[in-house]
Here is the input.
Amino acid sequence: MSQDSSYSTRIAHSNDAKAVRMLLSSATDVFEHILVAESELPQRIVAAGALTRSRRPKPLKGPGVTLQVIEPFRRKGIGKTLLSQLAARAMQLGAEAIYATQKVDVNSEAMRAWAAFGFSPCETVEHHELPLDQFEPQLAPLYDRMRQKGKIPAAARIIPLFDADSSEVLRLHLATMGGDPMALSEKLRGEVNGSFMPRLSRVLIIDDQVAGFILAHRVSPEIAYVDANVVAPEVRGSWANVWLKLEATREAMRWGIKQFVFTSFDHYKDTRSFTDRMRGVTVRKSVLMYLPLVPAHVSDADSG
Here is the structure.
């Protein structure tokens, strides 16, 4: 596909799977298109890049992209060449942008590396630590008042994740937050590291339909990471969020958990204000990097 005196690039073959997996830290079946770069002498794979099968719908539709070049071959233009070819392939598939598959910390080396390829932030993610001892005294009175005023439907109930229809949880997650269907399914089934804790995670049911959930996993004896806090649009901003958080808190405290870590995005203003109200602290900021696919970007990469 392209070549100079030190390396060449090509589409990955089936017998490249082990090298690709080691470089990209993922099985090959999650990718739609994989490229590798080979050194000439000695001949070996020194870099790999790929487009994911899953696509983000906004701000521009497009797949994820991942890229890795081994240390001795960095700063030789290999990464730029692979990225140019991956961007061209994504455009052929109708993509409007490509996205780094992993969010990176603000002002980190990884963020600077993506920026050097022309990527820029399209979404900021904040991580908030909230002590659970603040939840019960603040949420319980709110819940009680809502219950007394008849705001909570009689048909509403909250159940643990293991009692819920996982396909419906997946559907609501994809509809509201997006994500990789395969990766989410594995976490719902408890098949991978970071899988959702089936007792700690809570699901809101209204008229036998999934209307919200809190999905979380334990990261230490006293800390749980809240991966998703979702309420369907028809009950958002009402009793549903209060009740879900309260039920998740009570279950977490039964397991000895003392702190939740919530993640918020730019459009989740309620989570950030909730952090302030619960005396939480923002401990980390990361960004999703993306590259809009206009001809200028592709030609710039080709010239590198």
Q: What stands out?
A: Residues 35 and 233 are 41 Å apart (CA to CA).
